[in-house]
From TrEMBL:
InterPro entries: EZH1/2-like, SET_dom, SET_dom_sf. GO terms for molecular function: chromatin binding; histone H3K27 methyltransferase activity. GO terms for cellular component: nucleus. It holds the Pfam family SET. Residues 8-75 form the SET domain. GO terms for biological process: heterochromatin formation. Residues 123-135 have a biased composition (Basic and acidic residues). Keywords: Transcription, Transcription regulation. Transmembrane segments: none annotated. It comes from the Eukaryota. Residues 82-135 are annotated as: Disordered. Coiled coil: none annotated. This is SET domain-containing protein.
Amino acid sequence: MAKATGRNYLFDIPNYRKISIDAGFTGNESRFANHPSNGNANCSAKYIWSGDEKHIALYATGRIWRKSELFLNYGRNYWTGEMPVGDYGAERTSGQESEEEESEEQEYEDQSSEVEFVDDVEEHERWHSDESQDL
Protein backbone atom coordinates (compact mmCIF):
# COMPACT_ATOMS: atom_id res chain seq x y z
CA MET A 1 0.00 0.00 0.00
CA ALA A 2 1.11 3.51 -0.69
CA LYS A 3 1.36 6.38 1.70
CA ALA A 4 -0.98 9.21 0.82
CA THR A 5 1.82 11.70 1.45
CA GLY A 6 4.30 10.06 -0.92
CA ARG A 7 4.63 10.15 -4.68
CA ASN A 8 3.20 6.94 -6.04
CA TYR A 9 2.46 6.23 -9.67
CA LEU A 10 1.83 2.51 -9.25
CA PHE A 11 -1.34 1.04 -10.67
CA ASP A 12 -2.18 -2.40 -9.30
CA ILE A 13 -3.62 -4.94 -11.71
CA PRO A 14 -6.64 -6.82 -10.33
CA ASN A 15 -6.31 -10.61 -10.19
CA TYR A 16 -2.49 -10.30 -10.35
CA ARG A 17 -1.44 -9.59 -6.77
CA LYS A 18 2.26 -9.23 -7.51
CA ILE A 19 2.00 -7.09 -10.66
CA SER A 20 1.75 -3.31 -10.80
CA ILE A 21 2.29 -0.80 -13.56
CA ASP A 22 4.84 1.85 -12.57
CA ALA A 23 4.31 5.18 -14.35
CA GLY A 24 6.84 7.02 -12.18
CA PHE A 25 9.33 7.47 -15.00
CA THR A 26 7.37 6.84 -18.19
CA GLY A 27 3.80 7.25 -19.31
CA ASN A 28 1.63 10.21 -20.14
CA GLU A 29 -0.23 12.94 -18.31
CA SER A 30 -2.91 10.55 -17.08
CA ARG A 31 -0.46 9.34 -14.42
CA PHE A 32 -0.99 12.66 -12.64
CA ALA A 33 -4.72 12.14 -12.06
CA ASN A 34 -5.50 12.97 -8.44
CA HIS A 35 -7.93 11.47 -5.98
CA PRO A 36 -10.95 13.76 -5.40
CA SER A 37 -11.29 14.79 -1.77
CA ASN A 38 -15.05 15.12 -2.15
CA GLY A 39 -15.55 11.77 -3.91
CA ASN A 40 -16.52 13.38 -7.23
CA ALA A 41 -14.23 11.71 -9.75
CA ASN A 42 -14.44 13.08 -13.29
CA CYS A 43 -12.88 10.05 -14.96
CA SER A 44 -12.68 6.30 -14.52
CA ALA A 45 -10.04 3.76 -15.51
CA LYS A 46 -10.43 0.68 -17.65
CA TYR A 47 -8.02 -1.97 -18.90
CA ILE A 48 -8.11 -2.29 -22.67
CA TRP A 49 -6.31 -4.47 -25.18
CA SER A 50 -4.44 -3.02 -28.14
CA GLY A 51 -3.20 -5.97 -30.13
CA ASP A 52 -1.34 -8.12 -27.62
CA GLU A 53 -0.70 -5.28 -25.17
CA LYS A 54 -2.82 -4.31 -22.19
CA HIS A 55 -3.23 -0.60 -21.48
CA ILE A 56 -4.95 1.52 -18.87
CA ALA A 57 -7.31 4.07 -20.39
CA LEU A 58 -9.00 6.93 -18.59
CA TYR A 59 -12.53 7.80 -19.66
CA ALA A 60 -14.35 11.00 -18.78
CA THR A 61 -17.42 10.41 -16.63
CA GLY A 62 -18.70 13.91 -17.33
CA ARG A 63 -17.55 17.21 -18.76
CA ILE A 64 -13.92 18.06 -18.02
CA TRP A 65 -13.12 21.72 -18.55
CA ARG A 66 -9.88 22.83 -20.17
CA LYS A 67 -7.09 23.42 -17.62
CA SER A 68 -8.92 21.45 -14.92
CA GLU A 69 -7.52 18.43 -13.13
CA LEU A 70 -8.36 14.80 -13.74
CA PHE A 71 -9.82 13.20 -10.63
CA LEU A 72 -9.77 9.41 -10.40
CA ASN A 73 -10.94 7.44 -7.36
CA TYR A 74 -7.81 5.64 -6.19
CA GLY A 75 -9.76 3.01 -4.28
CA ARG A 76 -9.47 1.81 -0.70
CA ASN A 77 -6.24 -0.15 -1.18
CA TYR A 78 -4.29 3.02 -1.97
CA TRP A 79 -4.67 4.66 1.41
CA THR A 80 -2.72 3.44 4.45
CA GLY A 81 -4.22 6.10 6.69
CA GLU A 82 -7.20 8.38 6.45
CA MET A 83 -8.16 9.77 3.10
CA PRO A 84 -7.34 13.48 2.78
CA VAL A 85 -10.14 16.01 3.02
CA GLY A 86 -10.47 19.44 1.49
CA ASP A 87 -12.34 21.37 -1.13
CA TYR A 88 -9.99 20.71 -4.05
CA GLY A 89 -11.62 18.72 -6.81
CA ALA A 90 -15.05 20.09 -6.05
CA GLU A 91 -17.53 19.73 -8.86
CA ARG A 92 -19.25 22.81 -10.20
CA THR A 93 -22.97 22.89 -10.05
CA SER A 94 -24.87 23.96 -13.14
CA GLY A 95 -25.09 27.68 -13.62
CA GLN A 96 -21.56 28.32 -12.33
CA GLU A 97 -19.85 28.35 -15.72
CA SER A 98 -17.73 31.43 -16.31
CA GLU A 99 -17.82 33.49 -19.51
CA GLU A 100 -14.52 31.84 -20.51
CA GLU A 101 -16.03 28.38 -20.06
CA GLU A 102 -19.14 29.34 -22.01
CA SER A 103 -16.89 30.63 -24.81
CA GLU A 104 -14.92 27.37 -24.67
CA GLU A 105 -18.14 25.37 -24.91
CA GLN A 106 -19.21 27.36 -27.99
CA GLU A 107 -15.76 26.83 -29.54
CA TYR A 108 -16.06 23.09 -28.87
CA GLU A 109 -19.49 22.98 -30.49
CA ASP A 110 -18.20 24.95 -33.50
CA GLN A 111 -15.32 22.51 -33.97
CA SER A 112 -17.46 19.40 -33.59
CA SER A 113 -18.48 19.59 -37.24
CA GLU A 114 -14.78 19.14 -38.13
CA VAL A 115 -14.54 15.77 -36.37
CA GLU A 116 -13.83 12.87 -38.71
CA PHE A 117 -15.77 9.74 -37.90
CA VAL A 118 -14.37 6.32 -38.75
CA ASP A 119 -16.70 3.50 -39.66
CA ASP A 120 -14.20 0.77 -38.83
CA VAL A 121 -16.35 -1.65 -36.83
CA GLU A 122 -13.45 -3.98 -36.00
CA GLU A 123 -11.43 -1.10 -34.55
CA HIS A 124 -14.42 0.08 -32.51
CA GLU A 125 -15.12 -3.42 -31.20
CA ARG A 126 -11.48 -3.95 -30.30
CA TRP A 127 -11.41 -0.79 -28.14
CA HIS A 128 -14.87 -1.34 -26.66
CA SER A 129 -14.91 -5.11 -26.36
CA ASP A 130 -15.97 -7.27 -23.46
CA GLU A 131 -12.26 -8.03 -22.99
CA SER A 132 -11.81 -4.62 -21.38
CA GLN A 133 -12.23 -4.53 -17.65
CA ASP A 134 -13.53 -1.76 -15.43
CA LEU A 135 -11.24 -0.98 -12.52
